[in-house]
Structure prediction request, 200 residues.
Amino acid sequence: MNDAASTVDGPILTVVGQKVALGPLPKESAVSLGVKWLNDLEVTRTLSITAGRPFTLEAEQDWYDRVSRSDSDVLFAIYERATLRIIGSTGLHRIDHFNRTAEFGILIGEKDCWGKGFGTETARLMLDYAFNVLGLHNVMLKVFSYNERGIRAYARAGFKVIGRRREAHRLGGRAFDEIFMDCLATEFEGSAFAGILPTG
Ligand SMILES: CC(C)(COP(=O)(O)OP(=O)(O)OC[C@H]1O[C@@H](n2cnc3c(N)ncnc32)[C@H](O)[C@@H]1OP(=O)(O)O)[C@@H](O)C(=O)NCCC(=O)NCCS
Prediction:
């Protein structure tokens, strides 16, 4: 990797957890890995962004250019801490600083990294970042009812189910519910930023 988000010492890491670390998402990786992940039906079956269509390099570049420059989005690469390879991306979107709300998104595209606790820790670090760094109050997400891995990971990270939109998502000729989950700053305990942020 050789671009603005890496140095001779390795990638830039903004938030470091036990299993994962989060840092600026390099454009080169975002585009090349994004196109790989978003054309893998096993990955996209739980995502709403591609709706089963092939995903082009141009579409990924456009998405990156828009989101990485937007004031209402925060975008991070997810690094596997042990290897420092990029395994996915995560973000806060539709950030509204007046109402102090945002929507959480995550994509772990490297399938060998599923089910190892990386998604749970990433979701928790992103809630922590949203509440304790950005000062937000409510973070929401939407997940399809058949994404049991995601629902479990989000619940363990601190999200609660707040409702469901029935039969609003179709896959393979069947209709599934969309589940909405959120977390409030007042419900979130502990912070990876405790040693950095001012106290009192
Ligand atoms: C959804 C996603 C973020 C979850 O991250 P992850 O690292 O795989 O999840 P974790 O390992 O942290 O947690 C998974 C939980 O589901 C459980 N689980 C694992 N495999 C499962 C399966 N096949 N069915 C049901 N539960 C499963 C695990 O036991 C764990 O729960 P536990 O901690 O209570 O034991 C990740 O798999 C992903 O990015 N998938 C593809 C894209 C996607 O779905 N994005 C999110 C759209 S809302």
